Amino acid sequence: MSESDALFDLTGKTALVTGASSGLGRQAARILLEAGAQVVGLARRNDALRQLQSEVGADFSPISVDLGAVSDFDAVAQVVSEPFGPPDIVVHAAGINLREPADDVSLESWDATLHLNLSIPFFLSRALVSCMKERHWGKIITFASLQTFRAFPNSIPYGASKGGVGQLTRAMAEEWSRFGVSVNAIAPGFFPTELTQPVFENEEIAQRNAAQTCFGRNGSLEDINGPILFLASRASDYVTGQILMVDGGFTAK
Prior knowledge:
The chain is of the alpha/beta class. It has a single domain (3-246), classed as 3-Layer(aba) Sandwich (Rossmann fold). Helices cover 43% and strands 15% of the residues. It contains 9 helices and 7 strands. Strands 3-2-1-4-5-6-7 form a 7-stranded parallel beta sheet, sandwiched between helices. Helix 5 (107-135) links the parallel strand 4 (89-92) and strand 5. The radius of gyration is 17 Å and the shape is globular.
């Protein structure tokens, strides 16, 4: 194996991907597996996780958990460490966007959005980081958003949570990078996932979003492969506290 290939080789590494049942989480699980990692996929829908396992094989372990209802993070950390050992890599891809007008936002929907999008990445990372610190190597990848930097209609709770993810990423990097743990974020543009389905169902909006990118197109799931692999591997060992925009240049224009 060449040195360049070795930089991205994840053989012998274990990974946890939340939101692995669909969309970018599912794609992240796939590319980590292809790079040699053993992957635990965490999501609510057991059937979707089992379907992915049937496609990729025994190096993927599905665990059905409703993260929106989790309060005991140490228990979750123990469960996800059982199949392959404590994870070296954690990808926080689970998320929610209820797309409510400001006047319709309830305290319950506000709390649910911030809990899943912002609280889970911190408390679950904290429950898992001790083993990374012992190894003096670990990778935590959060999912920021265009709304980390831009305001979109009907998205106040989501925008607030993703703005928080940006600062959370920097703060966790400041806290844990001295122990060899890199913490970075990917901020996707418009990709065809369940979360963005309402956008892609409207052809006019989808085309308008594509026109706002430098490439003139929206993302495809494969466009996330390289950024995930970079931030999960030795290739990014001196990169931490950063937000990598994977948006086709949407925020560059």
